[in-house]
Write a structure and sequence with these properties.
- The complex is a heterotrimer.
- By secondary structure, chain A is α/β, with parallel strands linked by helices.
- Chain A contains ten helices and 13 strands.
- Chain A has two domains: 224 residues, Rossmann fold, CATH 3.40.50; 56 residues, Alpha-Beta Plaits (2-Layer Sandwich).
- In chain A, the strands form three sheets. In chain A, strands 3-8-9-2-10-1-11-12-13 form a nine-stranded mixed β-sheet, with helices on both faces. A two-stranded antiparallel ribbon of chain A has the order 4-7.
- Chain B has a single domain, classed as Nucleotidyltransferase, domain 5 (2-Layer Sandwich), CATH 3.30.420.130.
- The longest helix of chain B has 11 residues.
- Chain B starts with a strand and ends in a 17-residue tail after the last helix.
- By secondary structure, chain C is an alpha/beta fold.
- Chain C folds into two domains: 215 residues, P-loop containing nucleotide triphosphate hydrolases (Rossmann fold, 3-Layer(aba) Sandwich), CATH 3.40.50; 46 residues, Alpha-Beta Plaits.
- Helix content of chain C is 34%, strand content 28%.
- Chain C has a nine-stranded mixed β-sheet, with helices on both faces. In chain C, strands 4-5 form a two-stranded antiparallel sheet.
- In chain C, a hairpin with a 2-residue loop joins strand 4 and strand 5.
- Classes of the chains: A alpha/beta, B alpha/beta, C alpha/beta.
- Chains in contact: A-B, A-C, B-C.
Chain lengths: 292, 120, 283
């Protein structure tokens, strides 16, 4: 089974539109949306949810006010400044958005007045789309720990692929280089980096290439909207080459991409110039994906 | 000698769970007494991270001399090695058959982890 | 006054807005680039920065001659970062969150903490503009400690603009927490609207007043306008879809340099934001 993960470093480079198009070109395949912070793939894939799974991860501290003796020990031991003290009401409480779930306050409360319930962080879904099954998720507002959720989505999508006998999983990865990105690329067969011809796009791509090199994952690069700054597009491809990251082809700036998005349709289903470019990029990606 | 295997269900007539860290049960064979018992690995299913480390800790606590499972990552391997537990990876099939193969000397201890770190 | 600029998804124009706001006014502003995974603000600023400090987290180290393998540290660790072997406790630093629980739990005093570098921050100043940028080292996963540190660094300044990381999880929450006002930047498209609604849920949960700036106004559809009016969310300003902005951005130039019209537009947006944030401070 091959797993292609599409990432970008910088957000807004067109990663999701390209992912959706790749899926359409290869249907039926398993699709995974690992951009759990800003999941958008469902807007073009129109999934029908088959199964929902609550996402519970870690714990959070909750102070039982009526048992609290206001000694302030919890506040002293917490390294995340997550314990608040209201002078007026003389109440200690935990700021759930600051709580790391380390349990130190729980262990050190002299009167055991701190509970430590499991934390509900969101839900993941197995859905059916016109192009095959899709695994996606939604984090609760300010829900944390998207790295673990990403791992869950990846393992569910691989399970689904082996169950149905599909040999490709196409994954829309998260932006950035932190915890969710690391969780989405480790062990993948191939990574496609979609970038844009801007100084930020260049900078972020280099950081992403540092990451794929760190984890020894094979990567390709595609410059989207390349004609916005042809010189920069060329520079980006050259710098990718110094990392041993090969070109997968460019995609031109095309308002038809936005139009397709507004209509809730994958770009390759529209007659628009960028659709041809995306098809050409796929043929390069496919060659690398099926090699070795 | 104590041999620990990963299990999906509490039965030795079922397939060995190829996962280590997130396997729901361990089955512990005691070759001296010819008996076996099951251990929950359940606290791991909701662990935020480090399921492999915690599972390895459970195996060590169970007094294992050998762990047989599908694959084992680097962190768990390090814990098991430091605790003198041999790790056997790569085999699959019904639990009782895997144990028989081991007892006949057909399975060899791994020299290192066979999968990448899951990171979370 | 602390103003955070955020968005549910990256690439909507957060940095464009933050940088141009900072460059549009004549009073002292401290711009904090808290998008530590991909700090980009500096590319658009007419100043130099120097790395001023490494950011570290505390990491436990076990003295194996003192360790009795009692297991108290492993029990205290909720992150499964410690395992106990006959040779002593083994710490897996990549799983450690630096909470200090193991250290406090060890009855033998066998655990000490040593700093480990996870990133750094850099600073620069020119005229009225001060700039602080945090940067997470590649391969490191925990952005919040760096964000916390650079926010603290700017805490004493009178007008602070925080360019937040995209998304709605830990890093964004860390950057936005405690702000007087949040500006959510979005594009007028279905993707933009979906991400905006997630960001709105998050800032509402954090209980911080907020408004919306629409970037690339004119592309897409009316969905964001309709959503904002039905949710009673104020649209603070709109930045037009102008290929000139996209091109100057691609070269690393701020939009206020295109002409006086843009400088006036951003200044107007800044004053409106400061007004709203001030209302909060007074109330």
């Amino acid at each position: 089974m091959k797993e292609l993960v599409i990432i970008s470093g910088k957000g807004g480079t067109g990663k999701t539109s390209i992912t959706a198009s790749f899926v359409v070109l290869n249907a039926p395949v398993v699709t995974a949306d690992c951009d759990v912070d800003a999941a958008n793939l469902h807007l073009v894939m129109k999934p029908e949810i088959l199964r929902k799974e609550e996402f519970i991860s870690g714990n959070e501290a909750v102070i039982r006010t009526h048992d609290c003796v206001r000694c302030g020990r919890c506040r002293a031991v917490c390294r995340y400044d997550a314990i608040r003290y209201d002078q007026e009401s003389r109440v200690y409480s935990v700021n759930p958005y600051g709580c790391e779930g380390c349990g130190v306050c729980v262990d050190h409360c002299p009167v055991s007045a701190i509970d430590f319930p499991a934390r509900h962080c969101g839900a993941s879904f197995l859905s059916e789309t016109p192009y095959g099954p899709m695994v996606h998720a939604k984090l609760d507002a300010a829900g944390e720990n998207s790295g673990k959720l990403v791992s869950l989505i990846r393992s569910r999508s691989k399970e689904e692929a082996s169950k149905r006998g599909y040999d490709i999983v196409i994954t829309d990865g998260p932006p950035g280089i932190g915890c969710p990105v690391i969780a989405s690329v480790t062990g993948a067969s191939l990574v496609l980096i979609v970038t844009e011809p801007t100084v930020s796009g260049m900078h972020d791509m280099i950081r992403v290439m540092d990451l794929t090199r760190h984890f020894k994952i094979k990567a390709l690069v595609s410059v989207n909207k390349w004609d916005l700054n042809p010189d920069m597009a060329k520079k980006i491809e050259e710098s990718a080459e110094t990392y041993g990251v090969e070109k997968a082809g460019r995609i031109r700036y095309d308002k038809g991409v936005t139009t397709a998005m507004v209509e809730g349709r994958p770009v390759v289903l529209s007659e628009t110039p960028a659709a041809d470019d995306i098809r050409a990029v796929w043929s390069v990606v496919e060659k690398h994906l099926k090699a070795d | 000698m104590k041999i620990v295997l990963t299990a999906r269900e509490k039965s030795i007539d079922t397939e060995m769970d190829p996962r280590f860290g997130r396997a729901p049960f361990f089955v512990v064979f005691d070759t001296e007494w010819g008996s076996y018992s099951f251990l929950d690995n359940e606290q791991n299913l909701n662990a935020t991270q480090g399921a492999g480390v915690q599972a390895a800790q459970n195996v060590v606590k169970a007094g294992a001399d050998v762990l047989i499972t599908g694959s084992c990552g680097p962190k768990a391997f390090q814990v098991l090695q430091a605790s003198n537990v041999d790790v056997v990876t790569g085999d699959q099939g019904l639990i009782k058959e895997v144990v028989e193969r081991f007892n006949r000397g057909e399975l060899k201890a791994a020299q290192g982890p066979d999968v990448e770190s899951h990171w979370v | 006054m602390r103003i955070a600029i955020a968005s549910g998804k990256g690439g909507t124009g957060k940095t464009t807005l933050a940088v141009n706001l900072a460059l549009s006014v004549d009073f002292p502003v401290t711009l904090v680039d808290a998008d530590v995974e991909e700090p980009n603000g500096i590319f658009f600023l007419p100043l130099e920065i120097k790395k001023t400090k490494d950011v570290t987290i505390q990491e436990p180290v076990v003295n194996t001659t003192r360790c009795t393998s009692c297991g108290a540290c492993a029990k205290a660790c909720r992150f499964n970062a410690i395992a106990v072997t006959p040779q002593g406790a083994l710490v897996f630093t990549e799983l450690c969150h630096g909470c200090g629980g193991c250290l406090m739990a060890c009855p033998e005093g066998a655990i000490t903490e040593h700093p480990r570098v996870i990133g750094s921050y850099a600073e620069g100043k020119k005229g009225n503009l001060s700039f602080i940028q945090g940067e997470l080292n590649v391969g490191e996963a925990m952005a919040p400690p760096i964000i916390r540190e650079i926010k603290e660094k700017a805490a004493g300044e009178s007008m602070v603009l925080i360019d937040s990381p995209p998304g709605t999880s830990c890093p964004m929450v860390t950057a936005v927490n405690g702000a007087d006002y949040v500006v959510l930047v979005t594009e007028p498209t279905p993707f933009g609207l979906n991400d905006l609604s997630l960001a709105v849920e998050t800032v509402r949960a954090l209980n911080v007043p907020f408004g919306v700036v629409i970037n690339r106004d004119g592309i897409g559809d009316k969905g964001v306008d309709e959503y904002c009016s039905s949710e009673s969310i104020e649209i603070i300003g709109k930045i037009p879809d102008d290929r000139k902005i996209a091109e100057s951005y691609s070269r690393g130039e701020a939009a206020v340099g295109i002409g006086p019209g843009y400088k006036a537009l951003f200044r107007e947006i800044f004053h409106k934001i400061a007004d709203r944030a001030g209302e909060k401070e007074l109330s």
